[in-house]
Hints:
- By secondary structure, the chain is of the alpha/beta class.
- The chain contains 13 helices and 19 strands.
- The chain has a seven-stranded mixed sheet with strand order 6-5-14-15-16-13-17. Strands 8-2-1-12-19-18 form a six-stranded mixed sheet.
- The two termini are 26 Å apart.
- Flavin-adenine dinucleotide binds next to helix 1, strand 3, strand 13, helix 9 and helix 10.
Amino acid sequence: MKHAIVGAGIGGLITALAFEKNNIAYQLFEKAPKLNEVGAGIWLAPNALQVLEYLGLFEEVKRKGNTIDQITLGKSDLSPLYDTRQNYVKDTLEYATIAIHRAELQKLLLEKIPPEKIHMGKEFNSFERLDTGKVKIKFADNTATEADFLIGADGIHSKVRKQLFPESSIRYSGQTCWRGVAAIELDKEYKNRGIELWGDQIRFGISKIAKNKVYWFAVVLDAPHLKDNKDRIHQKLLRLYADFHPIVGELISSTPVDKILRNDIIDLKPLDNWYNGSICLIGDAGHATTPNMGQGGAQAIEDAYYLSDLIKKQPNTNVFNLFQEKRKEKVSTIVQQSWTTGKMAHWKYGQGLRNFLLKNMPKKVLEKKMMKLYQIDKPM
Ligand SMILES: Cc1cc2nc3c(=O)[nH]c(=O)nc-3n(C[C@H](O)[C@H](O)[C@H](O)COP(=O)(O)OP(=O)(O)OC[C@H]3O[C@@H](n4cnc5c(N)ncnc54)[C@H](O)[C@@H]3O)c2cc1C
């Protein structure tokens, strides 16, 4: 086998599809026995959408998701601090943002992979470098396989990374996040808007992802690793967000408690390298970022795009150094900016100054930054 991809999340699935398009041999291994229905939404920014277009998936994603062409950063009462129509992005790149249910996205990606190339219920355990130059990949079920190259796409808690770079570490941002999908319809004016409301050290995000489906997230400062008492979760969230716009309470109340997810907001302390020899990390496994810029998935998607392009151009060469060279600067900037944005959103002091700066931020400066973030090299 030429390439073994470990992990069929967004990064692993898009890598497999990009390899498929470019006739690059691969096999994909996923530990879950079947697709995990993650009950939350995801925003796919224009950089991710351009890759999906390249793979012929854009129209389907657009149909199954909801277009977001206005982004509002507001106060808890929904009055805007910063509000932008995404016309300039749409006009230049031809894409806005699409919000979609994660399970819907994963399902449509998975369906496109030839069944003989994907192996569900295969949990990666460890690797061994062989004298032949190949890598032996060992699974939890005591089976093993060999490949020329191993691509670790196994997410933020990557086992491939833990063996490759045992010194790597996860950072807790001090924030925890609840997510849910409510079965309600938003007023017309909010239907194509991505909204994030900043209150007193607390924030709430809202976006429609499909007909009668609204994705929301709630972020607060808290200690890590805490668990919820499911019976009291509605009460707790309603109390925390009591002084927010009434739509917030409505979203929380209309989401069944067993469908509310909780995750601590973490990222990966930046690594010096994402590869060693014939083993390389992509997506969250190599550079997990906090979700404040909605770019973690998009960066995993960009990884897949550039890696497949480099392999296509130099099929018999190890391109991992070129891949890292191509990607590192943009990814590092995002990880850093996202971390800072998260901190700023929860400032205890200086909220007035923060809000003033946001309100008066020159549009041109922001637009230029966004364009840089959303641009990718044209398909080669
Ligand atoms: C609250 C929150 C909101 C977010 N919102 C956005 C957003 O709006 N837009 C955006 O672009 N990004 C967003 N992200 C980030 C995004 O979810 C991740 O960056 C993205 O899922 C990373 O994809 P991945 O394929 O690298 O990893 P994952 O999606 O984590 O996939 C890893 C896969 O590997 C499998 N796996 C794990 N261990 C093994 C093993 N040992 N053997 C085999 N398989 C294994 C897992 O089962 C999984 O299928 C958000 C993240 C969070 C936490």
